[in-house]
Input
Amino acid sequence: VTWKTPNTTINAATWVRGTAGHSEESALQSGSIYGFKGAITASKALAVLGLEMLMNPASLATVQAEFADRMEGMPEYEGKAMIPAQAYPEAPGVLVTAPGNVKLVTAETAFDEADGDQIIVTDEEDVNLGSIHIAGATSPELIFPLEEAVSVGQRLKITYVSADGDAWFYGYVHAK
Output
């Protein structure tokens, strides 16, 4: 989104200084009265900014012109994550064994497997190696074979598609 349109970020105090992000402490503090007040303050600031952009065409034009200047000469966005592949951790809850079996440990995946969902396994060039359409997802493990053989150490891409069609890249795994 930030490659295609102007954007902004706002910081508001919701935690005690020195609190680690994505920690139990940050979660507890965010749910406190101080966290709530900080979130309300940030929401109000963003709402006022949104109103300014909607009601003042000159302000919007200034923001759009600055964005166009900053983006001049930038490469075209390719519609994929610009994070290098080696920076992704192994996808939790997915085990692929050579020559080609996949096991999903449903309690360890980041998604809730439900009827109609699909898990797709591809190689790094996006060649489809196999998939499963989930039906009766009550088992703690779902096992399915790949249509194509894989080798030990081969890096594979896992994509999750929900029953309503929302698809997202889940992560990489190395075949064992």
User: Anything to note?
Assistant: The first helix runs from residue 24 to 30.
